[in-house]
Amino acid sequence: MDIRRAVGATVGIPREKLDDLLRHRESDRFTAREQVALEYAERITRDDRDVSDGCLAHLREHFSEAEVVELTFIVGYQTFASKFAKAFRLVPQGFASV
To answer: Rounded to two decimals, what is the model's pTM?
Structure first.
């Protein structure tokens, strides 16, 4: 999460909120809309989770169809970038310390 953390900090996301990303379910720092987006992202990226009809219905309560498409693209792109970096053994550039 190196460059994404740096970008998040640059656009004003508080460090504490970035620190809570992996604990987003227990954190009160995330809105309901953010929680739904994070749940959706996890379901896309984790092999042990499915994107169920219920998940999509819940997502559509908070996002328009265009936003769902954009969110899906961003999650897919970031997943690709992670796998690409892994394949070429690219190391973090130190942005996460921001």
So the answer is: 0.83
